[in-house]
């Protein structure tokens, strides 16, 4: 009889990251004490300080991983379509998937900013994330051939932010589709270079 192999137990680092991701996201970075994370992760207190150095470094890792995961999710949506304008709308499709998750509690970076002091690591991580959002829509607008890509990107960022906030406050995934419909209207009213017209 063949032995069934049990999957390896997650490392202390993986368990700390998983515990902090869940607790920091659902309850707040500053609301959750380090003892709660350690208890949920099932690791010794010394393990956290040995692996991360302290709570600040754990928060930094949490926000970094959230940023990376969302970048990868958005990229999958972009890779699934070819038309440049469809790529813009694909971002809102990915938001819809995110909003429909049962544990959705809003944008992790908006939440972190609400708790952050100016210049804190949360503030810096949120600033980096926001720069990426603006650059993402700016690049998509340029690729679509918008005559004024910055203006289009600014409008899309507002729709993106509005969808996030409304989904969080109203506890519904519907704002993603509403924002996508509004983005279609914005695209219809945008001037594009002749070779980029669909």
TrEMBL record:
Residues 10-70 form the HTH tetR-type domain. Residues 33-52 bind DNA. The keyword Transcription applies. Keywords: DNA-binding, Transcription, Transcription regulation. Pfam families: TetR_C_13, TetR_N. One of its GO terms (molecular function) is DNA binding. Gene3D superfamilies: Tetracycline Repressor, domain 2. It comes from the Bacteria. This is TetR family transcriptional regulator. It comes from Subtercola lobariae.
């Amino acid at each position: 009889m063949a032995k069934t192999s049990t999957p390896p137990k997650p490392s202390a680092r993986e368990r700390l990251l998983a515990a902090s991701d869940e607790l920091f996201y659902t309850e707040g970075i500053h609301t959750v004490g380090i003892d709660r994370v350690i208890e949920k992760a099932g690791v010794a207190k010394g393990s956290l300080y040995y692996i991360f150095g302290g709570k600040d470094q754990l928060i930094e890792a949490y926000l970094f991983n959230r940023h990376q995961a969302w970048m990868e999710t958005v990229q999958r949506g972009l890779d699934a379509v070819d038309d440049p304008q469809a790529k813009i709308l694909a971002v809102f499709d990915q938001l819809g998937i995110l909003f429909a998750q049962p544990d959705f509690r809003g944008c992790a970076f908006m939440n972190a900013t609400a708790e952050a002091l100016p210049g804190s690591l949360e503030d810096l991580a949120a600033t980096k994330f926001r720069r990426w959002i603006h650059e993402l829509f700016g690049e998509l607008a340029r690729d679509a051939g918008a005559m004024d890509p910055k203006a289009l990107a600014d409008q899309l960022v507002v729709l993106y932010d509005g969808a996030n906030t409304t989904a969080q406050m109203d506890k519904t995934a519907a704002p993603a589709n509403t924002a996508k419909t509004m983005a279609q209207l914005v695209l219809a009213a945008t001037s594009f270079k002749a070779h980029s017209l669909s």
